[in-house]
Write a structure and sequence with these properties.
Blueprint: E1 2-5, H1 9-14, H2 16-28, E2 32-34, H3 44-48, H4 52-65, E3 71-74, H5 77-90, E4 103-105, H6 106-114, E5 126-129, H7 133-137, H8 154-159, E6 166-168, H9 183-186, H10 188-203, E7 209-212, H11 215-227, E8 233-236, H12 237-241
Parallel strand pairs: 1-2, 1-3, 3-4, 5-6, 5-7, 7-8
Helix pairs in contact: 10-11
Length: 245
């Protein structure tokens, strides 16, 4: 299978280590992966701010760039969810959107497509899992707590393959951390308070690290934790999964 690696703009600029870890994971499992160098932002920030028309040329470019791949894989649940859920509407009337059917978060791809059963290396730390909103409710990376369905968590399934790790979940495990993209800019006080509450619940598990599929959520909480001198670290799930590579 041919896989196109999509690295969201904020991951490229601020957390390239998450992108590198994703690439290492794909190569470890002998995936034919390519990184189109002219890729750009998927358009989510503009559309979330109310300027969907500005996202349209980016959606058009993205769809054309990744159309020949079997899958498009990204280390970002929110960006993957944006392409999957909103691109068909944005490109409606122009042509059928093909990338929305191919896009997957790295957790989703490893769990559902490759169905991996082992990983090398170890991570001898206590880790609390952050279930980001887009991952839970748009990509189905875990079961939403508000729904009366059998419980599952693909992030935890993969983390269990790592030797030495102790996995925890916070109380109110899939409540929003308060980032929400533009929400953190327009409603800063509420966003910070939500982040503080979420960090406290993660810390109450005894975790040394918080991990999840979205660097944006981790960035939001890490910023608050740093300013308030909270003793907890944040790391993208791909980096833990690639610890032995």
């Amino acid at each position: 299978m041919k896989v196109g690696l999509f690295i969201p703009c904020y991951v490229d600029a601020l957390y390239p280590e998450a992108g590198v870890a994703t690439y290492k994971l794909l190569k470890h499992f002998d995936v034919d992966v390519s990184y189109p160098e002219k890729q750009t932002c998927c358009g989510q920030p503009m559309a979330n701010a109310g300027f969907e028309r500005m996202a349209k040329p980016l959606a058009r470019k993205f769809d054309d760039m990744f159309k020949d791949f079997d899958y498009v894989v990204a280390p970002s649940a929110s960006c993957a969810a944006y392409v999957k859920v909103f691109y068909p509407h944005i490109l409606e009337g122009e042509h059928e959107c093909v990338s929305s059917k191919k896009i997957m978060d790295i957790v989703e791809f490893l769990h559902d497509v490759l169905k991996i059963t082992s990983l090398p290396g170890s991570f001898n730390h206590v880790v609390s899992v952050h279930n980001s909103c887009h991952g839970v409710r748009e990509l189905g990376l875990s079961s939403p707590s508000e729904r009366n369905i059998p419980q599952f968590n693909k992030i935890i399934d993969l983390l269990k393959l790592i030797d030495g790790i102790t996995i925890k979940e916070p109380e109110r495990k899939d409540e929003c951390c308060g980032f929400g993209g533009m929400f953190s800019v327009e409603e800063t006080a509420i966003s910070i308070r939500m982040g503080e509450d979420k960090i406290e619940r993660h810390m109450a598990t005894g975790a040394e690290y918080v991990t999840g599929p979205d660097s944006s959520c981790l960035m939001h909480m890490a910023g608050i934790a740093k300013r308030e001198n909270k003793n907890i670290k944040f790391v993208h799930v791909s980096q833990i999964l690639a610890a032995g590579l």
